[in-house]
Amino acid sequence: MKILFLFIDGVGLREAAADNPVNPEVCPTLCRLISQHGKPIDACLSVEGLPQSATGQATMFTGMNASVFMGRHCEGYPGPSLRAAIEKNNLFLQLRARGKRVKFADAYLVDSAEELAARRFKSVTTVMALTTPDVLSFTDDLVDDLAVMQDLTRDTIQDRYPDIPLVTPEDAAAHLFELARVHDFTLYEFFQTDVAGHSLDYGRACAVLRLYDAFLAPLVRFSQAAGITLVMTADHGNVEDMQARGHTCNPVPFIACGPHEQELRDSVSSLVDVTPAVLKFL
Ligand SMILES: [Zn+2]
């Protein structure tokens, strides 16, 4: 079994509303996956306050309740104690221990793991990927279409890297699929949805969700044809409520589409269950 794991930042589930851009007109493929292959799961993790990225993602990728561990929801980049916990045990390390071929598809515009490790601020996925450095993708990989930019199209890097050509979201899907075909577990992280949610700009949120949907539609077709299980979830809600600048307490979608999809969904009721469920089926 092969899993293509799409982590989408800041997309929660909420009833249809004029300020909810997660609707079939804006993102038909995402909405179809949610209704036909998804279930709502808890991202609040039994801790007061609004769920945040560092603890939500750490929970998603370790199977430990990071908000309980920290005594609160932690924003943005993990601090020293959370980093240490991620470095000790995470999904990539567990998959590696089982001899699985693992890829983190997001391109880092550096030349080596050492250069990346020297960065002061590192996301949960960066900390995790540095524990198994050969899963990382660098500038050369992006140039060779063996990685995907976090914005999908490379638009945000054109001023710094004018020689790296733009791609369409459909191209990005094809590049990601090629990676998923030759690895047991491939992760792609997209956080522009969370950025758009914080902007309070409904038009921007719609544009980002449309872009992601144009990438998702061919990816679903490719994965289904190849028998690769697509798994998708979010660390907390945000963009589904464009009235609120911060995150939301809404449940997040857990989507599984492909072989063992029902068993995967049955295994997950909160972010704590995501890593154990992936490990159970790989
Ligand atoms: Zn987040």
Keywords:
alpha/beta; Alkaline Phosphatase, subunit A; 6-stranded mixed sheet; 13 helices; 6 strands; binds zinc ion
Question: Explain this structure to me?
Answer:
It is a single chain. The chain is α/β, with parallel strands linked by helices and about 280 residues long. The chain has one domain: Alkaline Phosphatase, subunit A (3-Layer(aba) Sandwich). It contains 13 helices and 6 strands. The protein has helices at about 30-35, 55-60, 65-70, 80-90, 90-95, 115, 125-130, 140-145, 170-180, 190-200, 200-225, 260-265, 275-280, and strands at about 5-10, 40, 100-105, 185-190, 230-235, 250-255. A 6-stranded mixed beta sheet has the order 2-6-5-1-4-3, with helices on both faces. α9 packs parallel to α11 (about 200-225) and α10 (about 190-200) runs antiparallel to α11. The longest helix is centred in the C-terminal third of the chain and has 25 residues, at about 200-225. Bound molecules: zinc ion (ZN).
Précis, in short:
42% of the residues lie in helices and 11% in strands. The protein has helices at 28-37, 53-62, 66-70, 80-88, 91-97, 113-117, 124-130, 139-143, 169-182, 192-199, 202-226, 261-266, 274-281; strands spanning 3-8, 38-41, 102-104, 185-190, 229-233, 252-257.
